[in-house]
Amino acid sequence: HEVLGPIWCAFYPWPISAIGRWQERFTHRRYRHVPFWTASSFTRDLLLKQGVESVTQIPYGVDTRALETLPEKELDEPLRLITVSRLAPNKQVDHAIEALWCLLNEHDLQAQLKIVGEGQELDSLKQCAEKLGVEEHVEFCGALPEAEKDAALREAHFLLHTSLREGWGLNVIEANALGTPAIVYPTPGLVESTLHKETGLVADEDSPAALAAMIASVQSHEGNFQDWRTAARDRAAEFHWDKVLPAACDQLESWGKSKYE
């Protein structure tokens, strides 16, 4: 799914992080003759560079069905923003909170942020919101049942994704299926799950200020927003398991047969 690389440093101090990165590279070399399956070209290329001989790229599927008809959703204030992820260091959800502060204070835009998920960073994220004075604009929802999560995604104007690195970005596709574009950091994986100015937007750099600037730039472009919603929904339909699973099963069966031939 993902070559962790710098993510080791987000979770562990040196030298544990260095050991983790070393053992990851060692494991890839150890299993270099085993075929790998991954979703993104970035991960495929990293695996090849680390010695894996055969890497097949097949997209991951989602269970979320693309809406047949998109509900009306005007790009009005307050902007409804959402993050959906584990609250872990590598997800950098604090960057979404800081981007919210930028919108409110530097771009004079009203906005609200829902944070869906749970994890070790919850307390520090709450402290971040309080320190920045935006706690009244942030709602910590915890882990939600699928139906409630889908409803929250459907209601939002944009999904924000600020991860240090992603293997792909499944929640981007889930949001897209429900007519919600994503605005993401220009990090590996996310730049493949989001097509810039087609199904969403990619920030100029991975910083809260750049993310906020990208969000603010679309406020006056209602037509583009509606086009992105439609394009995102249409593309997401191609990633439902009904479309993805046959190719994935064929590949797995091919690998299984070749082992015994």
Biggest sheet statistics? 6 strands, parallel
Strand order of the largest sheet: 5-4-3-6-7-8
Radius of gyration in whole Å, from Cα?
A: 19 Å
Q: What is the second-level CATH architecture of the largest domain?
A: 3-Layer(aba) Sandwich
Multimer state: single chain
Instruction: Kindly identify the CATH topology of the largest domain.
Output: Rossmann fold
User: Which structural category fits the helices and strands?
Assistant: alpha/beta
Pfam families: Glycos_transf_1
Domain Glycosyl transferase family: 76-234
Protein name: Glycosyl transferase family 1 domain-containing protein
Keywords: Glycosyltransferase, Transferase
Main attributes of the structure:
6-stranded parallel β-sheet, transferase, alpha/beta, 8 strands, glycosyltransferase, Glyco_trans_1, glycosyltransferase activity, 261 residues, 13% strand, 46% helix, two-stranded parallel ribbon, Rossmann fold, 11 helices, Glycosyl transferase family 1 domain-containing protein
Fold and architecture overview:
- There is one protein chain.
- The chain has 261 residues and is of the alpha/beta class.
- The chain folds into two domains: 7-62 and 240-259, no CATH class; 79-237, Rossmann fold (3-Layer(aba) Sandwich).
- Helix content is 46%, strand content 13%.
- It is built from eleven helices and eight strands.
- The chain has helices at 7-11, 16-30, 41-49, 93-105, 122-132, 146-155, 170-177, 190-193, 208-217, 222-237, 241-259; strands at residues 36-38, 55-57, 79-84, 111-116, 138-142, 158-161, 182-184, 200-202.
- The chain has a six-stranded parallel beta sheet, with helices on both faces. Strands 1-2 form a two-stranded parallel ribbon.
- Helix 7 (170-177) links the parallel strand 6 (158-161) and strand 7 (182-184).
- Helix 4 runs parallel beside helix 5 (122-132), helix 4 (93-105) crosses helix 9 and helix 7 (170-177) crosses helix 10.
- The protein is globular, with a radius of gyration of 19 Å.
- It starts with 6 loop residues before the first helix and ends with a helix.
- 36% of the residues are buried.
- It holds the Pfam family Glycos_transf_1.
- Residues 76-234 form the Glycosyl transferase family domain.
